């Protein structure tokens, strides 16, 4: 290092090395003012005696840490600094220790970034090799149950009783139901039981009053909550986690044909691959509900998984729109759908993470939407669209951009909100 002294051996002429003085110690004090008149003068410190013998190299080396912290006595400080002008290794070590002490006096917080754990988990979940050959269509469910389980592992016993409001739309109005964090996990487990039953696995509800469990998601949830003799606690986490693991293992070993297995939801049914995607969506949405209740950072799904969830909702919209039309909740079809005329379409442009373009058939659930017959366009953020589908955002507040047939736009936005349920 330039500016210091090196050598001192084999007759080399030592070069002066400048070492900064130690930082002032935290307990240093200024000289006290003289005592009031009339009081005896303080005794003068004794005159310093003759200097003692020089300290050995090993002793001076052992004092470097205390010197860097300004914890040496005046005599020790003088001896160390004198030694640093003639010993290059100790001078280098002293400078390193002085720099290290500077790091201890930072004004920045030593707390970890609260998002660090989420980023590490997301990276691990995206990179970890599958122990078994997991089908690509089951990957969103596997990832979202793992993310939610990580959240549940972090919260304390009291937070399992934190209040949570579940929101969804019924008859074009937003409704809600109050439960707890443990109640939300019980709800997810009860509805996941529809998939378990379709695969021949144990149903977590067993037999309800000696008969079969209710066939609908809402009925199953109400049955689970009513059967509990006391509010659910964190004990619900283990059976929910075991159930999700069993589902993933079963579909991984079942072969390709299982993807089209029908999973009944009461008034409708979904192929198994869409059903697990729908369960991944619910797991993410309710994971966000729990995270809001316990003040926990929670990110949206990976872009590829979010894109699949949006695609599922877009594919379901024509059927939901037809049901609303039959119930008098949507405007009637305007064009006869034939082989040469598929009817009108709405261009759904989803921006941001998981985004893309979809064309929603407006006049028949069996028709395919096409750009050539688009009469309106709606632009939304990907996460915002999913919040609309989950019933967390009113349809009149959801669209970031609208163009074209206003009636068609309103019908599609309300149909999207109608996809939500308890």
TrEMBL record:
Region (Disordered) location: 1-57
Superkingdom per UniProt: Bacteria
Skewed-composition ranges (Pro residues): 42-56
Keywords recorded for this protein, A-Z: Transcription, Transcription regulation
Cited Gene3D superfamilies: Anti-sigma factor, zinc-finger domain, dinb family like domain
A single GO molecular function term of this UniProt record: metal ion binding
Putative zinc-finger domain location: 62-91
Compositionally skewed regions (Basic and acidic residues) per UniProt: 9-31
Pfam families: MDMPI_N (PF11716), zf-HC2 (PF13490)
Protein name: MDMPI N domain containing protein
Organism of origin: Streptomyces pratensis (strain ATCC 33331 / IAF-45CD)
């Amino acid at each position: 290092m330039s500016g210091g002294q090196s050598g001192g051996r084999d007759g080399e002429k030592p070069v002066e090395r400048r070492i900064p003085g130690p930082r002032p110690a935290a307990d240093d004090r200024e000289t006290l003012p003289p005592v009031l008149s009339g009081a005896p003068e303080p005794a003068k410190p004794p005159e310093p005696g003759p200097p003692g013998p020089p300290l050995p190299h090993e002793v001076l080396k052992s004092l470097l840490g205390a010197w860097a912290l300004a914890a040496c006595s005046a005599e020790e400080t003088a001896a160390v600094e004198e030694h640093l002008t003639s010993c290059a290794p100790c001078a280098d070590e002293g400078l390193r220790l002085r720099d290290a002490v500077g790091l201890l006096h930072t004004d920045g917080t030593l707390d970890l970034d609260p998002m660090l754990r989420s980023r590490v988990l997301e990276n691990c979940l995206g990179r970890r090799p599958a122990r078994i050959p997991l089908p690509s269509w089951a990957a969103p469910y596997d990832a979202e149950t793992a993310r939610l389980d990580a959240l549940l592992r972090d919260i304390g016993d009291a937070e399992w009783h934190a209040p949570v409001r579940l929101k969804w739309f019924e008859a074009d109005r937003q409704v809600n139901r109050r439960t707890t964090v443990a109640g939300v996990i019980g709800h997810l487990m009860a509805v996941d039981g529809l998939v378990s039953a379709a695969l021949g696995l144990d149903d977590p509800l067993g037999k309800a009053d000696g008969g079969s469990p209710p066939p609908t998601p809402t009925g199953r949830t109400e049955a689970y909550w009513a059967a509990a003799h006391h509010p659910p606690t964190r004990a619900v986490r283990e059976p929910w986690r075991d159930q999700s693991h069993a589902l993933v293992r079963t579909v991984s070993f079942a072969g390709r044909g299982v993807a089209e297995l029908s999973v009944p939801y009461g008034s409708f049914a979904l192929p198994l691959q869409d059903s697990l995607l729908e369960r991944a969506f619910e797991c993410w949405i309710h994971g966000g509900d729990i995270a809001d209740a316990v003040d926990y950072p929670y990110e949206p799904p990976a872009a590829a998984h979010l894109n699949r969830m949006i695609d599922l909702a877009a594919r379901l919209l024509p059927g939901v729109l037809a049901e609303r039309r039959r119930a008098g909740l949507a405007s009637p079809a305007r064009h006869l759908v034939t082989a040469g005329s598929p009817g009108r379409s709405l261009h759904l442009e989803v921006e941001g993470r998981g985004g893309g373009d979809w064309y929603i058939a407006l006049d028949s659930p069996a028709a395919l939407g096409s750009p050539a017959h688009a009469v309106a366009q709606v632009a939304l953020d990907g996460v915002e669209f999913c919040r609309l589908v989950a019933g967390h955002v009113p349809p009149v507040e959801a669209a970031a951009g609208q163009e074209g047939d206003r009636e068609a736009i309103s019908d599609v936005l309300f149909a999207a909100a109608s996809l939500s349920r308890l």
